[in-house]
# Entry
Amino acid sequence: MKKCRSLGPVAVLSLGLFSSQALAQDFCNASHSGTKVDVSNTAPTGDANGKGTIGTIGDYSYEEWNKTGTGNATFYSDGSFSCSFENIDDYLCRSGVLYGQNSGVNFKTIGHLYADFSLSDYTNKSGVSYAYIGVYGWTQDPLIEWYIVDSWGSQGRPTWCGTLVKTVTIDGAEYDIYKDDINQARGTIEGTKTFTQYWSIRKTARKCGSINITAHFEAWEAAGLKMGSSLYEAKILGEAGQYPEEHNANGSFDFNYAKVYISGGSTTPTSSGSSNPGSSTSTRTSTGALPGTMEFENYESKQSDSLKVYGDVIGNIQPGDWVEWTVDVSYTGTYGFEILAAREDSQDRKSEISLSIDDVSVGSASVLTDGWDSYDTFSGVTSFISAGQHKLRVTFTDGYVNVDNIKFAENEVDKGSKYEPPPEAIAKARFALKGKDLQVFDMQGRHLGRVSVAAGTSLQAALSAKFHKPGIYLVKQGTLFVQVRVSH
# Structure
């Protein structure tokens, strides 16, 4: 935890990110949801190590810590959290992804990392001289503590965190990049030792937005600031404190929305400064199956950069935009489909979504709901589709719609012969390994554990036996990540 200097109070901007026309995922107005856990810690004055709690809820890892005083936090299974502190010197609360010690997870090979956050309230009650609102984490080999700061509160923008390296533009805004060599041994994830800090500090504050974490990593490396080869964590952060320390800072944070996620799964990161989770030119390996479910945020390719991924939905869709997947169609015949989508229109105009297989139209549905946050299911039946591997494209003919997923079920199919992917199509997922200990991650980059492949067993079978859950897994061998689909 680093106390940056500031030049005093500056205006804090609360930016509305989404137009009423297009973005139902307006998480700026989200509410806490899901199960919750309450955390409280009291640290006596003079305890340099402070008191803290680390845990998990749902798919998220959380942490609360305070130096002197008392800290209280509530973490929710949807990733959101709220926290308050009394009579502290330094305080932090955060939620996101934890990869763990010496994870071997390299940001260059796991796909594009994002954080979507909304801070509904930050109150500096008294005594606070600095605050950081953004994303935080560590890498190892080398040991780097890193911050991406998007807001800071009324006490002023941090303007010095070591040596100013350069100014870059990411997500349409300017950030100052700093490097600070901490030459006095301090507490770290590897114990008490010296380390280096990297900072990206936004020039204009915002309380809600999508942070392109990977773009910052790439910008740091382009500036000569080497990232560690193992990513330890990436968490949305609220931190506050005082300098000089007088044990009497008080305040609170409320993150009504907080999600850290990987978009895509590309083995090659996109260029520095890109705010695009992926495009038709990205290296993507997402596939699907009929029958089965495809999540729109896990598309294989898309038409343009206008369409954006926001957590588990896509939005900002313009007329004619499309996404597509490579799909394995199990049986020849017709399939029923359901699209989970939302659209608001003051004149009750519907938006058409059309489906095609190998550029041949096979179905469509029209979407209209009560609001941008009001998702409903819209169904139809495809025309004849032959068994085999095809390209499925979903085109948003009229645009201005938000979509979550599309599900396919058998309607009238011929089960006389089932399509099986040829051996070369699944050889990539087998690795040709026996008895090897492979690391396994989910599509959000969370480490699930390890799996070994016995002689005569496929990797798919080993994953199914280990985790007992269908879906797409990221499996790591050395520096290579591949996606493996487990259907049952």
Remarks:
- Residues 423-486 form one domain.
